[in-house]
Every structure is written in C-alpha cells, then in structure tokens.
From TrEMBL:
It comes from Salinibacillus aidingensis. Its cofactor is FMN. The keyword Translocase does not apply. It comes from the Bacteria. It catalyses: (S)-lactate + O2 = pyruvate + H2O2. This is L-lactate oxidase.
Length: 384
C-alpha cells in the first residue's frame, strides 16, 4: 500500500506511540475514563436534554457524499485562504475556555500543538492563561482572539487592543453566550470552575478590570471573582454596538454563533469580515438547529460577500468535506482537541489534529477532489 502524501505517512509511522484513538467515540470514552466527572461533564455535556448535541451528529449523517472517479487525485492541496492569509488546512482550533480544568498546561499546551501543526488557534476570553502568554508560545503562527464582550465595554475594548498588540490576526466575537446555557450536568455537580479563579486569566492582568477593583486579586481574589461574574456577559448588546468594537481595532471581525440567514445578512450589512455558523456545540440553546443544516441557507444569503466558517459536530474528515462542499471556507473543532489535551497535553492535541487532517486529505482524494476550492455541492445529497 502506498501513502498518498506526507500527512498519511506521518500518521502510520506514529502508530505505535499513539495514545489517541483514531475513532472520536473511543477518544471521548478514553477521556471520560481519565477525567473526574465534573470537568469531563463540563466539556462533554451540552444544554438541556442535549438534543442539539445529538442532532449535530445526526445531521452530518443525513448528508451523503457522492464520490467522483478517474480524476487524478495524486497531488492535493489542503490549503485555504482567510482575510488575505493562507492557511495550510481549512481547520482551526475553536475557542475553548477554562482548559486548565482538564490539563494543568491548559491553553498553552493546545496553542503549542496548534502552532506545531500549522493550525490557527482561537484563544478564548475565558482562558486560564492570559492572551499574552498564549501568544508567546505560538511565536509567528496564526492565532485569533475570541471576545466575550463584557458588560463593561471598556474591558471589552481593552482586551481587543491587547490582542492586536500581542499579534492576534482576527477578533472573533461570540454572540450566543451573553450568559451560560442551562447545563443540567454542571448544575447537578454545582460545578463552576470560575469560582476557583480558573478561566479568568485575561481579566486578572487587564488594566481596566484591575482599575475597577479596590484591592489586587492577590490580596482579594473573592472580590475579583465577584466582579468577573458581574461583568462577564452582556445580554443588552444589539447590532448597533458593533461599531464600538470596530473602532477599537484594524483587525478583521468575525461573528460567531450565527444560525439564522437573516442574521447572516445583517452581519454583512454591518460590515463584519466573516461569520461562524455555530450552535456552540449544543451548549447554549437546546433544540437549536444543527449548524450543518443552517449552513446552506446562510451560504446562499451571504452570496460570497464574506467568508462563512462553521463548527459544532465536526468529528471526522468526511464532516469537513461536507461543510466545505456546502460552502464553508473552514471549520473549527472544539471537543475533539479537548479530549486530546486531557489525555496527553500538547502531544494529544497534535495527534487529534494530525488524525483529522489525514482523514480529511484521504477522504477528499477518495471523493475525487484535489483541493478545497474544488469541493462544492455537486458531490452532496441530503437524505430527506
Ligand atoms: C468546554 C468548552 C468550552 C467552550 N468555551 C468557549 C469559549 O470560551 N468561547 C467560545 O466562543 N466558544 C466556546 N466553546 C464553543 C466552541 O468554540 C465551539 O463552538 C464548539 O465546541 C464546537 O462544537 P464541537 O465541540 O462539537 O466541535 C466551548 C466549547 C466547549 C466544549
Ligand atoms: O462553556 C462554554 O461553552 C463557554 O463558552 C464558556 C463561557 C464562559 C466561560 C468559559 C466557557
């Protein structure tokens, strides 16, 4: 058997040392056995009855790929382009907060792994390690900053400016989480890692946040955590507020959490640079539409005016093919790389990314396509 390219060879060479199962289901199971119930459930679970989490998976199963034959797929190009920059793969690490609950090196390990694999890392506002530290470990590699827009808008502005200064090349504003969804398992466990000061690293060194405290966090962490809980989210935001953030930065602005085609049109009208179709991995509105099912109408509504990305339920290479064939420019992954982090830190995240890239490369070739640009709806049919 010959391997299609270097990515394939890399996967098989590493087989003996692999701790990361190639199957997502086995990976999730292994992470479950490895972690305590509270942090595992925080990562794995979703809102309510977890309907949307299940539907994200079922929806991918309803889209079928119709491979094309005899098309010389010996040379393949997995790259894509976003905001004038070339990405090696159409894959990014989604913003995931509080990674220290599953591995002591948290975001630093994930960021290092992403940098090593040439996969952009989207650093969350809710990180345990601050954005400057995370930036440092990535050297010159592509990184974006995800903003949770604080109800204290000077804090939001401060974080955006810090991100630009630290070398992040886009700002992702997450719209679907002005407050946490109804997460029954976390409520059962009475689990809130923030109360132990995990996930608030970006606030603890923010000059504006610190200026709002009477005493430093070292002297009085309880007050810092209390203030964080009061200013974290901002449910009062409206489309008109986007101008404020745009005025703070020259970086491209990407809106995350779009599911309605009309919101996609509004995003274009308000001059943002990209959108991410996402239901937050089912963690916010239980019963929300699967992101992959929302994608076609949104891609059509946007009419190529800005790039459309998607996440929520990407588990395998074939899922990536489906999203790109519908019209996404790139996809983000959340839980898969969290499980890699839980099991083996930086190395675990690298293996998860490597498996996904290799699977995507192979499945694209076997579908008769040689580049991301060639993927289109011609090779897809949806079961009714
Ligand atoms: C544990 C966890 C924490 C998350 N934290 C954030 C966050 O801080 N900011 C954000 O925009 N999205 C956050 N998300 C959502 C992810 O960015 C992404 O939308 C989601 O995980 C994609 O679905 P998937 O897990 O099925 O791949 C989080 C997801 C998980 C699982
Ligand atoms: O848990 C999440 O899904 C999430 O987005 C989040 C929100 C605030 C802090 C940490 C994570």
């Amino acid at each position: 058997m010959s391997f299609g390219n270097e990515v394939q060879a890399m996967v098989y060479q590493g087989v003996e040392k692999n701790i990361i199962p190639p199957s997502f289901e086995k990976l999730e199971q292994k992470a479950k056995e490895h972690l305590d119930a509270k942090p595992y459930d925080y990562v794995a679970a979703s809102a309510g009855a977890e309907m949307t989490k299940r539907k994200n998976k079922q929806a991918f199963e309803k889209w079928n790929i119709i491979p094309r034959m005899l098309r010389d797929t010996s040379n393949r190009d997995l790259s894509t382009e976003l905001f004038g920059r070339k990405l090696s793969f159409p894959i990014l690490c989604a913003p995931v907060g509080v990674q220290s609950i599953i591995h002591p090196e948290g975001e630093l390990a994930s960021a290092r792994a992403a940098a090593a694999m040439n996969v952009p890392f989207v650093a969350s506002t809710a990180s345990t390690y601050n954005l400057e530290k995370t930036s440092e470990v990535m050297e010159d590699k592509e990184r974006w900053f995800q903003l949770y827009w604080s109800s204290d808008r000077e804090i939001a502005a401060s974080m955006v400016k810090r991100a630009e200064k630290a070398g992040y090349s886009a700002i992702v504003i997450t719209l679907d989480t002005p407050m946490m969804g109804w997460r029954e398992k976390d409520i059962d466990h009475a689990y809130l890692p923030f109360l132990q000061a995990e996930g608030i690293g970006n606030y603890l060194n923010d000059p504006v946040f610190l200026s709002r405290l009477d005493q430093s966090p070292e002297e009085d962490m309880t007050s810092a955590i209390l203030l964080w809980s009061q200013i974290f989210g901002n449910p009062s935001l409206t489309w008109g507020d986007l101008d404020f953030i745009k005025a703070q930065t020259s970086l491209p602005i990407v809106l995350k959490g779009i599911l309605h085609p009309e919101d996609a049109r509004l995003a274009v009208q308000h001059g943002v640079d990209g959108i991410i179709v996402s239901n937050h991995g089912g963690r916010q509105v239980d019963g929300a539409v699967p992101a992959i099912d929302a994608l076609p109408e949104i891609v059509d509504a946007v009419e190529h005016r800005i790039p459309v990305l998607m996440d929520s339920g990407i588990r395998r290479g074939s899922d990536i093919i489906k999203a790109l064939a519908i019209g996404a420019r790139a996809v983000l992954i959340g839980r898969p790389y969290m499980y890699g982090l839980a099991l083996a830190g930086e190395d675990g995240v690298k293996q998860v990314l490597r498996n996904l890239i290799a699977d995507f490369d192979l499945s694209m070739a076997l579908s008769g396509k040689t580049s991301v640009a060639e993927l289109n709806r011609e090779i897809l049919r949806k079961e009714s």
